[in-house]
Amino acid sequence: MLQYSLYKEKSIQGRYINIESIQSCFSKLSSPLIHIGDSVNGIKINAFEMGTGKKKVLMWSQMHGNESTTTKAVWDMVNFMQSEEALAKTILKECTLMIIPMLNPDGANVYTRENINKVDLNRDAKNLTQPESIALRKLFESFQPDFCFNLHDQRTLFSAGKTDKPATVSFLSPASNQERHITPAREVAMKLIVGMDSMLQKHILGQVGRYDDGFNDNCIGDTLQMLGVPTILFESGHYPKDYEREKTRELIFLSIVEALKIIATDKIDDYKTGDYFSIPGNHKLFFDVLVKNPEVANPEFDAGHSVGIRYKEVLKSDKIVFRPEIAEIGPLEGFYGHQTIECVDTKDFGFASSQNEILDLILKINK
Q: Active-site residue numbers?
């Protein structure tokens, strides 16, 4: 088993990762940077290549500027590939990796999903209206990959199936048509996902989800799958008490390395397509905080109702602050909280400061 701590890139951590954050990472590379284009604001978008093998893998992170977990995991993976590990040497002998660690540097700077023109780059694969989208497409066409890894984060609201387990990591083999047919490219992606899931179950039993496969030809994964290239969507989700997503980062690192190992060692057909559909689908069953019996704190609440609170991620002084906002009030049966507060007695809550903030929010709310 890999000793992750040996490869974790310690210069980057937390949720706010922008182009400045990774400059020292670039300096560690043994291969030259490849300038593939510029962002709307003129920031260079760079890629780099690792390995000499015939099996070509293209991966990109931070297509959404506020989804930084996979960027951290990519640099951890780079450290592993530059190590003396036998597996790393095997992968680099059998594969050529083309890596874009940050496709949307403008969005990363201001911590937004969209680019600076307020365009979602993951909905621009067909129209190619933005320079970042064009840069990725041109690199895809020139590199001609055999596999694509589309690296993202997902919100804390997702559960792995209809369970009380968070979807800490989710995957998708995107559809390539409205009918969601299992094409040869889609089947390969499914088998790779099954391989990663098999590994992850040893670390996060029951916490792997399968992302919705509704077809949208404006999405990059659907487009590349239509073009016949097996494409996998990676989604970094919530691990208990890990809002900085440092544990999830490790799991994504392990997933990327596992997928590359399967590709490098020709083990794709060891896995069954049918097992892909055994991975539970993502459901939106989690609140960050679920407050039960709020009528104890405020008699205006109806008995039997709960308050579901979700955090809004706000950039403040180059750090992400998690601000609680009430998302829903009602019976909320079948929903779960990453933290659950039972209101029992207004005289003795004994909450920590963060819970006091939440409680103040409840006391002030009007139904």
A: 235
